[in-house]
Write a structure and sequence with these properties.
Shape: rod-shaped
Largest sheet: 6 strands, antiparallel
Radius of gyration: 29 Å
Structural class: alpha+beta
Order of helices and strands: EEEEEEHHEHE
Length: about 150
């Protein structure tokens, strides 16, 4: 593990990945005379404000606390479930993407060559999507699968 800690900036960089937000390290009991810590795998040094650097081969407990806060902040967060409005927008977008299938000549071999031969698949799909556009619900939705277009020549 590569680690840099700069207490005055509340800055922790672990494996070259800085935090993307400010954190509070006040609970880590960092001694006030420490300017920074540098660590690479099995050794490093502590930089002090008013004295020479100190080489170390073991991480002090305050560093372990800083790393724990870093890890907590950087841990993946579960996705927030979609709101009813977001799901309605998604449904309307999916309907717009298939609006072209509602034109009468698209699936009529007498008017279009080639013609869409699986129009019924799109009708079923659009009906399922429309339910969420008309009666939106919050939460995760398992959206119906968009049918593949099947074109035939007359």
């Amino acid at each position: 593990m590569k680690l840099t800690i700069v207490p005055t900036d509340n800055n922790v960089i672990k494996d070259n990945i800085p935090l993307d937000c400010a954190i509070d390290l006040s609970s880590c009991a960092i001694p006030s005379n420490i300017r920074a810590l540098q660590w690479q795998d099995t050794s490093g040094w502590i930089e002090f404000w008013e004295q020479d650097n100190q080489n170390i081969t073991e991480l002090p407990s305050w560093v372990v606390s800083c790393v724990a806060i870093y890890d907590e902040v950087m841990a993946p967060k579960p996705p927030t479930p979609s709101t009813a409005i977001q799901n309605k927008r998604q449904a309307l977008s999916k309907l717009r993407q298939t609006d072209w299938t509602t034109f009468s000549d698209v699936s009529d071999p007498a008017k279009s060559n080639p013609y869409l031969s699986n129009l019924n698949d799109f009708v079923i799909y659009r009906n399922a999507i429309r339910q969420y556009a008309v009666n939106p619900v919050a939460g995760d939705i398992t959206w119906p699968t968009l049918p593949q277009e099947v074109w035939n020549n007359s």
